[in-house]
Amino acid sequence: MIRRLLLSRQKPVQLLISSIGAFMGILLVLFTLQSYLDFREMMSDKSDWLHPEYLIINKKLSILNSFGKAEGFDEEEIEALKKLSGVEHVAPFRSNLFRASGMNMPGGGSLNKELYAELFFESIPDEMLDQEKGSFTWKEGDALIPILIPADYLKLYNFGFAPSQGMPQVSPGTLSSIPFKIVMDSMGTPIRKDARIVSYSQRIQSILVPDAFLAYANDNYTWADPERKPSRLIVQVKDPSNTEVLRFLDEHNYESNEEQLRNSRLSNVLKIISSILAAVAGLIIFLSFLGFFQYTQLVLYRNQYEIRTLLDLGMPPARLFGVYLKMIGVVIVGIGLGSLSALFFIQRLMQQRLEEYGLELAAQLRLEVLFSALIIFVLFFVIQGIGLRKGIYGLMPKG
C-alpha cells in the first residue's frame, strides 16, 4: 500500500531512459575491458607470436654510409639502451674477424654432392638463446664446433635450393647428423675443425656458434681488434610495445625486427582505441549516474506531500528510505544482470567468429571484468542511497 502510494505520481519514461543509458554505458565499459584483456593475451602468447620480448637492433643504412666502414654501437649507446624503462638486458652480437668456409665431409649422410660455402659466424651470450645450452657448448681443446642455424634456413634449402639443384630434401634430424668441415684463415694459416649443426633457432636469423669459441677464435686467429664495435644488439624487454622504446629507436635511427615492431605498434593502437572507448563509456556511465540521481530527486519532489504526511503520522524515515532503496536496487540489479548477459552473448559470438580465422579467444568472462562490474554496481547503489537518504531526511518535520 505504501509503495503504491509513493509510486502513484511517477512517470517511468525518465527511469527507462536512464536505465537504457546505464545499460549501454556499463556494457561498453565491460566489453572494452574484456576485449583489451583478450587481445593483449592473444598478442603476448609465445606460441603464436615469435618471442616478442626480444628485439634485434641495428643502425639504419643510408647512401652516405653504404660504401664506408660498418658503423657499430659504442658503449654510450649501449648504456643509453639499458637505461630505458622496461629494458631488462642488452647484449652485443660478436662476429668473426677471420675468413671462414664450410664443406660437407665425404659420406656425409644423404647429401651425395659436395657442398662448399663461404661462411660468417655470430654469437650471443648463452642466456639470450631461445633453447637450453645442451650440446651447444665449447671449451678450448674441443675438436667439434657446434652450430646453431635459423629454422628458416632449412626451409629455404628444402623448398628453394634443393629442388633447383636436384638435391634431396632433408629433415632437421638428418641435417644434424651430417658432419661438416670448417676451414678458418688464421693469419694465412688454414685451420680445419669438425662442425655439426646441433639445433635450430626460431629467434635469431644468423649462423651461431658458442660465444666462448668465437671469443677465442677472434683472439687467436686474426690480428684485427677483437673489441671492435658490435653492429647488432639483442635487447630483452618486458613489453616491446613500450612507447619509450619505440620512440628511442625512431629518434636514434635504429631499426629492429619489423614483424615484432609491427605487433608492438598494433598493441599500441589497441591501447589507444581501448582508451577512447573507455572514455566514451565512462562519459555514458557518468550521465547515467546523473540521470538516476535526478530521477530519485524528482521522485522525492513529486511525493513530498505523501512523504511528509507519512512522517507526520509517525512512520520511521528508515522505512520510507528502505522502500525507495529497494525500488532502485531492483532496477540496478536488472541492469547489471542484463549487461553481463549481453556481454557473455557478444563474447561467444566473437569467439566463434575469430575461430574461423584460426584465432583463439576466451569463452568465459574474465575475473577482472566481473570485479569491475561489481564495483560499478556498488557505486550506483551507494550514490543513489546517499541521494535518497538526504532527500527523505530533509523532509522530516522540524523541531
Report on the structure:
By secondary structure, the chain is an alpha+beta fold. It has two domains: 176 residues, no CATH class; 203 residues, no CATH class. The chain contains eleven helices and eleven strands. The strands form three sheets. A five-stranded mixed sheet has the order 5-4-8-9-7. α2 runs antiparallel to α11, α8 packs parallel to α11 and α10 runs antiparallel to α11. About 2% of the residues have low confidence.
Quick summary:
The protein is an alpha+beta fold. The protein is built from 11 helices and 11 strands. It has helices at about 1-5, 10-45, 75-80, 150-165, 170-175, 210-220, 245-250, 260-300, 305-310, 315-355, 365-395; strands spanning about 55-60, 85-90, 95, 100-105, 115-120, 120-125, 145-150, 180-185, 190-200, 230-235, 255.
Strand order of the largest sheet: 5-4-8-9-7
- List the helices and strands in order: HHEHEEEEEEHHEEHEHEHHHH
Broad structural category: alpha+beta
- How many beta-strand elements? 11
**Total individual domains:** 2
Instruction: Bin the strand percentage.
Output: 15-25%
Biggest sheet: strands, sense, closure? 5 strands, mixed
Low-confidence spans: 46-52
Question: Which features would summarize this protein structure in a list?
Answer:
399 residues, alpha+beta, 4-stranded antiparallel sheet, 15% strand
